[in-house]
Structure formats: structure tokens, C-alpha cells
Amino acid sequence: MNRPLRSGIVGAAVLVLSALATPTVAGAAPAKPTVSPSTTAGNAAPTILARADIVFLGGDPSHPSGPLEVKVVNEGGAAAKGFFVLRLPQDADLTAGGDCRAGDGAPRTWVCGGAELPAGGDRTYRLTVTSSAAQPVFGVTGWGSVAGQDATGRADRPTEFRINWPDRTTLRLRATAGPVVDGAATMRLRVTNTGTFDIGGYSLNVATPDGVRVTAPGCSDSGRMNGVGCEILRERRLAGGATDSFDVRVAATGGTKSVRLWLAPTNRYTNADTSVTLRLTGGGAGGGTTTTAPPADPTTPATTAPATAPATPAPKATELPRTGTTTIVYGLIGVSLLTLGGGLLLLRRRLQRG
């Protein structure tokens, strides 16, 4: 009797749970997708199409940029003006090209182009996309889109394209400093890409103490050094395993100075040998006087003259003749003694036999 009762209770519970679950499933059903006006029955298909290639950002590592190429095609049977609508993700901005204007009411949206295209003709627009992130960004990917549009505002469906920010990598810094001569010194730098892929550029920071100023190459006007040094942008492609060698010239006054150099942004590089501290020595005298490099012995100043200078060099001491028995004489005496001893031994044996 208990078994039928338990079976009935279980069956009732299953029915109640099924009834409760039914509204939840119905509520989670996706909303009906909206249909683009260009695909609605009765509307003609758009004839202006647009496609974009992938964008690789490089150059200034703090705000890298890269080219964006958009191809606009007129697939209609008559000539028409071809526009395209460009949308960019957050932390990306349009900085040049394409005859673009901001879209009406839509953030990070531009309407570009507008050239007359013959039937079946096309035109490629070249634009520049730049990272607008407040802090340097590495190893991320964003997505933008383009959509062709005619003069009446009828637009094609958006087509996405990818934007790649620079990846993290390894970059090694080596540097040496020459002596300060006439108030100037040269630091020789070697920056090696120890990573496995090419990089589109890097930044070298030089912290200049009082009395030291970078004269070449030119310093960036980015303001990221806050007036306490010089940022040198090396906006050139550096292949994996390649080395970028160049000189940094400084004006230096006021004695020995310590200058620190490091690769930036620091969060891009995964290795430790990205910073070097150099000592500029030699006095840094100006006014046309060439300073003298410090001597090998630091206890003797380079400018100290001897107390008295001899008029003539001191004569060499006369070597005395050697006297006494030489090694050869000792050798002859030894050979004679050995011969005499051998003769005496032979004579003794003959006497014993006789």
C-alpha cells in the first residue's frame, strides 16, 4: 500500500515541476530578429558595398596607429556616388583620410567617401586608425565594421574587420658612454629584438639630471616624461633577432653625471634587461677646452705635473763582470770523478780474481 502512495506522490511532483518550468522556457525564447530595410520584400538590394582589411597597429607604442583600407564597389547598372559608414570600437579613433565626417548621433561612427563610381567600378580609401586608450594596451583585439551606402542613405549590412594591438615581447638594451669632451658626450646604444616577430617601433626614455641635456636625436613632444628627461621614438620596423644601433648625444656640464636609459612602455616587455645607467665623466668643461680623460690610476690626477723634471735621463748602471766558478767547470769535475771511480772499481775486481 505504501508503494502506490509513494509512486503517486512522485508523479504529482513531476507534473508540478513541469508546469513551473514551462513559463521559464517560454520567457527565455529569443526575440524575433529585426529585418534590415534593405532585405524587406519590395525593397531593392543595395548596390553600394564596402569591405575593409585587417588593421595592425604599430609605431608609437603608447598610441600605436595603422592603415585601414576600405574598398567601395558599385554593383549597380548605373553610375552612383559611393559612401561607406565606418564604426570603430572603444579605444580606437580615426585620425586621417577618407573624406570622413562624424555620424549623426552615433558615437565612434563616421560617414566617408562619396566619390562618383561608374557601374561596376570601385575605389579604395586609405585611412589611419590610432589607439586612443589612456594607458598603453598590448595583446588585445578589437572589431570595427564598414557598410556601403548610396546617396539616398540606403546602406548595406555592416561587415566586420579586426584591429590588432601590438603584442608583448622581449627587447634588450645595451649602451656605453664616451668621455665628456668640450661639454659634450656620446652614448652608443644597441637595441635588439630578442622576440620571435617583428615590432613596429619602440620608445627610449632618457632621464637627464641637472646639467645634462639631450641634443640628438630629437625628443618627442608627447609630454610623457613630465619635463624630467627625453623620450626618443624609434618608429621603425625591427625584425625578430635584428639590432637597432644608434647614438644619443648630450651636452653635459658640472662634473660626473649618472644618466639612466630604459625602454618604454615598461609593461610591454617581459624581460629584465631593458634599463641601463651610464656615468658621464671627464669634467664637462666648455669654452673650447678639451677635457682630459681620467688616468688609469685614480689616485693620480691627470693634471698633476711632476715636482722636478730631470734635464737628462739617468745613465744606466754598469753591469759588473761575472767572477768565480761557472756551471760548466762543475760539470767537468763531476764527469772526471765518475770516470775515476769506475776505473778503481774495475781494478779491484781484477785483483780479487788474481
UniProtKB/TrEMBL annotation:
Keyword annotations of the record: Cell wall, Membrane, Peptidoglycan-anchor, Secreted, Signal, Transmembrane, Transmembrane helix
Which parts of the chain span the membrane according to its record?
328-347
Give the matching Pfam families: Gram_pos_anchor (PF00746)
Q: Output compositional bias ranges, type Low complexity.
A: 290-318
Q: Where is this region: Disordered?
A: 281-320
Could you tell me which residue ranges the Gram-positive cocci surface proteins LPxTG domain spans?
Answer: 320-354
Which residues constitute the signal peptide according to the record?
Answer: 1-28
Give the PROSITE patterns listed for this entry: GRAM_POS_ANCHORING
Please give the superkingdom of this protein's source: Bacteria
Alphabetized NCBIfam families for the sequence: LPXTG_anchor (TIGR01167)
Put simply, this protein is called Gram-positive cocci surface proteins LPxTG domain-containing protein
